[in-house]
Structures are given as structure tokens and as C-alpha cells.
Amino acid sequence: MAPAERVDRAGEEASGTGTLDDVVANVPSGIKTKRGRTTQSRYCPQCGTHLVVVPIEGKDRERCPACGFIAYRNPVPVGLAVIEHEGRLVLVRRRERPLAGYWAPPAGYVEVGESVPEAVVREAHEESGLTIALDALVGVYSQRDVDVVIIAYRGHSLGGVPAAGDDASEIGLFGPGELPKQLPPAGESPTDHWFYGVIREVTAPWE
Ligand SMILES: [Zn+2]
Fold it and tell me: Which CATH number fits domain 5-22+75-206: 3.30.70.100, 3.40.50.1970, 3.40.30.10, 3.90.79.10?
């Protein structure tokens, strides 16, 4: 374990809507989720008819035979915050998959009603207790077999006391060269391996 300051989980934060795993609830029916399972085909959200899988535009897609609705599958945007607080990097230990138990920057789903930067600021506050200002876009990360897109911003804290939110079991502050050593994930999950790489890339300036 890196010699970094630990700040114990301090009370219940406002419920953090949007762990990465929530995407499972958002995916259309009949597609492979990031957990590797395939959901069962369901019904047309417009008219209730059972959807059928047909080739459309070169891909197998679910289509409603009655009204023509096509269940397009789109990756869900996730905002991520690489936060500096008093000269150190803020990481939270994830409670949920993917990469439960790993240290990662605060991250969560972008919701309708907010911009991506607003979502990043909100998630940062929910997961770390800190009010932050964004400084720059770090990068946009996606992979063809992963059903989320991560938009990562760099920011700094304006105030607040670091405290782990609902989606985290612990919060830590890591100075330069103090990042926790984390082994690559076991198993075959593309999402796990991809997310592990994203975490390493966005935190690389602190290595
Ligand atoms: Zn329909």
C-alpha cells in the first residue's frame, strides 16, 4: 500500500446515481452486457410487440415487426474526474464492478439534464465530497466491445472534506510517485481490462 493519507468513509453522501454497473439496466434487450451475459430479447418500447433480430445496415439489430422500431445500441457516456486536492491526487476505492476493490478516479454516468462537465463535477462531489473546478479535458476513451465511453477531465478541488461516497469504500490522497500499485484484473472481461488501462493512463502524470 502506498504511503498515502487515508480518509475514512465519513457518513452517507447523497445517493450517487450512476455506477458503471447501472449501464446494465440501460442497455436494450438482447445484447451482450459488460458482465458478459446476454439479456433476453424483450418488447418494443413503442408498441409492445416482441422484437426480432434482423440484419440492418450490416449488423444484427432488434427490430419491431409491427411498427419498425429499431433498438440501436449506443455506448453510455461516463464522466471521470482526475482531481488534485492540496497537491495530491484523489482516488476512491471502488465498491462496484467493474474493478470493484480497485483505486480509481471518481466516475459516473452522464444524465440527461446536465452537460458532461457538469456530470463530472457532480460525480466528483458525490464520490469524494469535494467541490471541484475543471481545468482541461484529459481524453475520451472507448473500445468497440465496451458499452460505455469515458470522458475524463482534470480538475482541482475548491473546497470540501474528502469523504468516500456511496460508490466507494474508501478515499485516498496520493502524492506524486505514491500511486497505489494495482495488478491487472484477473479474468477475461474486456471492460475490466479496458478500464484498468484507462485508469493507468489518466493517472500517469502522478506516477
Ligand atoms: Zn413496435
Answer: 3.90.79.10
